[in-house]
Amino acid sequence: MSKLDSLAARAVLPTGILLAIATPIWLWLVLQAPLDSVQGVVQKIVYVHPPCAFAAYLGFACTAIGGALYLWRRDEAWDRFAASSAEVGVLFCALVIATGPLWARGTWGRWWSWDLRLTLTLLLFLVYLSYLLLRGFTEGNERTARFAAVYGIAGLAIIPLNYFAIELAGGRSIHPENLQRGSLGAGMRAPFWFGVLTALLAFAHLLARRIELAWLGDRAARDAAAAEEAASWGT
Amino acid sequence: MTVLLAVLWKDLLVEWRSRDRIAAMGVFAVLVVVIFQFAAPPGSAPESRGHLPGLLWVAWVFSAVLGLNRSFALELENDAWAGLALAPAERGWIYLGKVLASLALLGAVQLVSAIAFALAFDVPLGGVAGPLAAVAALGAVGVTALGTLFAAVAARTQYREVMLPLLLLPLLVPVLLGAVRATAALLEPQPLPWPPIRLLLVTDAVFLIVSFVCFEYVLDE
Questions:
Q1: Where are the domains of chain A?
Q2: How far B161 CA sits from the closest chain A CA (Å)?
Q3: What residue numbers bound the domain in which B152 lies?
Q4: What is the DSSP string of B183-212?
Q5: Nearest to A151 among B167, B195, B203 (CB)
């Protein structure tokens, strides 16, 4: 078990306890937060949607970094880290894409718009879905890891290009720049940042669990292969 | 560098002797143009003509994917793959040889299907042939640069014909957007705008560099 795997295994319980404490506090803060005078109750998605987006982007960044470190060090642990980050990132990205249209319908009046950030996120989601498909369709651990690392790096390299491309296509952002302007209303900041903290805790917990599971899966596969070989020697 | 020329020469020679890849790509591209003709709304309203540059590029990208799939599937026969992987040279040069061979085929297909496109949709391409060829070439470089890298990946997976478009298409958005914008301006007709050309140049450069470096990790014995 490498350092990274044992770190993940040791992180499962503390992150789980912290998440169990943080989630009810976050829910209570969201319930206590004042209603937006213009948007009404639908604005409460602000406490779910951006935090999930941060976790998703973090997952995709970890995938690319894990892939690059795997190609450099050839340590399977980095591949497990990259694959697990991609899965957890896709999960959070799916939440972002599911909650976005609900909010958009309530405030912009339509489910979907080809807005800059929306399109970028959708493209990232598709790239990392393809990443998971590639892992599923490749045989052999080492080859899967190499191919996936290359694809994960290409997926990250494409982000700035996509940004310029969508801007060129006239996809100006209609997302509010709330964080830069600091325009979250009075009483909304604490639940928002607590939501970010909770989402990142959930990300860390799921990632640690997924890495542990991947390590156990790899070990079981290795044991089974060894047992098969021993049996073939015996006969 | 000699490896690049050797791979390029070998790919073109194999293609010249069989002509199966270029025939499949060419017929497919023309077929897509014809199918789009049936799918397009009747008449020549300006709003329906706005989609034409996109249709042309979809036909080109799909036929490129078809051809790229064969580019490495060919090497799997008779274990030619191992020979490539064992070549005593930087693997990036093998990659560039493959890119240039695919680019030559795609260029020929683009020429034929552009003529079919001009006839089918009654678009006068004669006046803008020069700049359109430049845009087509810039787009084709982007498509084959990344396509060759992932064709090598897809060839070693299950369902390889399905895998290549799944891997490639989400990453080709900047190339497609730049190429479609530039083509649309040419068909207007307007002078060639700089921003999409710049996007195409930058994207081509990024794709070529990333793929040149990453090909090392993709070509295994």
A1: 3-223
A2: 12
A3: 2-218
A4: HHHHHTT-PPPHHHHHHHHHHHHHHHHHHH
A5: B167
